[in-house]
Amino acid sequence: MPGENLSRDEAHERAALLSVDGYEVALDLRSAVGASDEAVRTFRSVTTIRFRRTGTGTSTFADLIAPSVNAVTLNGRSLDPAEVFDGARIALDGLADENTLVVDAQCAYSRTGEGMHRFVDPEDGEVYLYTQYEPADARRVYANFEQPDLKAPYRFSVTAPEEWTVWSNGAGERDADGVWRFAETAPISTYITCVVAGPYHYVTDTYRRGDLEIPLGAMCRKGLAKHFDADDVFLITKQGFDFFHDNFDFPYPFGKYDQAFVPEYNLGAMENPGMVTFREEYVFRGKVTQASYEARANVILHEMAHMWFGDLVTMVWWDDLWLKESFADFMGSFVNAEATRFTNSWVTFANNRKSWAYRADQLPSTHPITADIRDLEDAKLNFDGITYAKGASVLKQLVAYAGRDAFLEGARRYFKRHAYGNTRLGDLLAILEETSGRDMKGWAKSWLQTSGVNVLAPDVTYDAEGRITELAVLQEGDELRPHRTAVGLYRLDADGALVRYARAEADVTGVRTVVAGLAGEERPDLVLVNDDDLTYCKMRFDEGSLATLREHLGDVTDPLARALCWSALWNLTRDGLVPARDFVAVVLAFAGRETEIGVLQMVHAWTKSAVTLYAAPEWREEGGRLLAEGGLRELRAAEPGSEHQLTWARFFAATASADADLQLLEGLLDGTARIDGLDVDQELRWALLSPLAAHGRADEARIGEELARDDTATGKRHQVRLLASRPSAAVKAQAWAQVVESDALSNALVEATIAGFAQPSQRELIAPYAEKYFAAIERLWAERSIQIGMDVVRGLFPGLQDDAATLAATDAWLSAHASAAPALRRLVLEARDDLARALRAQECDRAAE
Prior knowledge:
By secondary structure, the chain is an alpha+beta fold.
């Protein structure tokens, strides 16, 4: 990987030297079919780049990662590939004022989801291709100048098997000679060019608005066609286009709008203009809850927002990645709430999305939203909870701070002023100062250029009659930021509901801020210092409010307020301030009354982590028993056929370990047991079978029987995961070898194997691999792609060996490998922090015994 890196300084130097007039890229993908899987290795890629020298130098380089180069020609002069190509770069000397570079290469098909990914469907043998480039993998498919500020128009042509269809960013058709030729794109960056090719199932529609007409397309593998609800995808797409056209005053600039749901995808989705790609898990094979549809809608709208934030106007370098990702993440929830049926999407955001941000912002690798990105490895790791979810949270705070109208007017001016160009932080701030009249530089310094999360807590005094004399908000943190926040007062009414009876907004600054407008109010049962979730902070409670939540959290009637309370309690648990067993008790008491399905699913995930990671080891077995009992109780009590019933069924399966519980799962699978209204479809079958495999009650033959029922790509991934989860030393050794010692598995099967390998019930069985992990990771990081390296280093870290010895082994590795790749060290430091946090939380829980 180090030889494939590109530094920020190198990129800036190259941008100062040249500008690119255009690309012509010709790919021949016929080699993807007709040979055995092992024989398929490369495809031909011929790239013509026209560029001008605008600086004083005469030397630069083009980027290309390929097994071999057939020919290189610069301005009609042949260059010896053996002399100019080192496997990642093509050296270019003797540049003229105007230059033409032609590179004829053999590029490699990918099995890691980077570059040109090739997938063979086990169900029917069909081959599917798609590209994925961010941040710098276009160079795996064609020669280029791989940095976001060297935008250019592109013309793609693709030769493909006769029975295939091919798509790219622009509209295309097959010529008489059998070659697919695509319209020239607007100027865009390398990382958002795209090719999708294969026998995809393809559905079309059209978006119309006045004189504007946008052809719409949606596609998936043929094997998923029977599950594909393209109508709902198009509905959300049209609602999104309506919103953006109403509010951005800049028509969609990229012609058609295709959306491809593709296999073995590493990301949620990618915003390639005119050709958006998504992970195919968003095509639902069985019954799912509305939270899944909401999540898919959020991603569709997130990627659509990128057409403006990121594609039309792009950051100069990855330091300002937030200029696209934070905005798109914010817009996903913003548009969902205002333009679709998912009107409560801000509830999901507060409970789910911000949880990711809070975790990332407390790691040793935390960074400002505008980060210091030295090179491409830094960039890859900064697609994180800070860039996405914290950035989106801060933008929500900005809307409260500057005003909705000023924010949207700023967006409109930003697009018109910088269309098809590249920007930095200052470009946006200058426009927002124009539209809001606020000091954006001071706001940006506090919110965008510093790291860490603030803690806000109430400080309330009362008179002798129990009325508030003063309510202040206390702020903690290394950087005391300005917060536009709301404070809500809640009390139990005559019907036992916990409802808000007073609210005041305030600009919180410094250590202590008195909130005007609440003096004289009656004593509340609950004080929320970030009511309505206007700002980004961890919220604390006074003693009375915390006691109220322990007894009445389920009585909070407002869904957003309730979601904020769940989130705050979870942060207290992670921080070792509330025992894990207390959090579990609150969940068992009130989760059955949670109406928001997305919140319930998040609470379930937190609760499993509370028992697995944060509970004292001696209480884990008891905690697990309580979760399974509570899960089964709520499953039986849920309305038959409801999404709550399905959610509790999955939770029960994930927590079941007692013999009677496992017998019930077996009965649900073989039909001898039944729960009224519960439809045990294929996806639920795999969920029910998972604990049986992990606890040794489903062997290889039984798992094979399930694969025979579901002999599909998705079924294969489930099978691989379950096979690796069996409680056997031989199984663990095989799984380890397949992931660590071999690169034969695709990215999706690596992910599945890792997920199966580390089971909380098998701590002793996998303990020997802690030492092997530290011995292997530096070599693995050097030999594998960065995506696989990230998956393995994160996924196989011995965090389940949660003791002082593992912490010491991690520290010893970090001490002995001070010169290891910074991105690798960051991943290990993050895992170490998670482990140390777990040990602190366990001490808190142990003290509660």
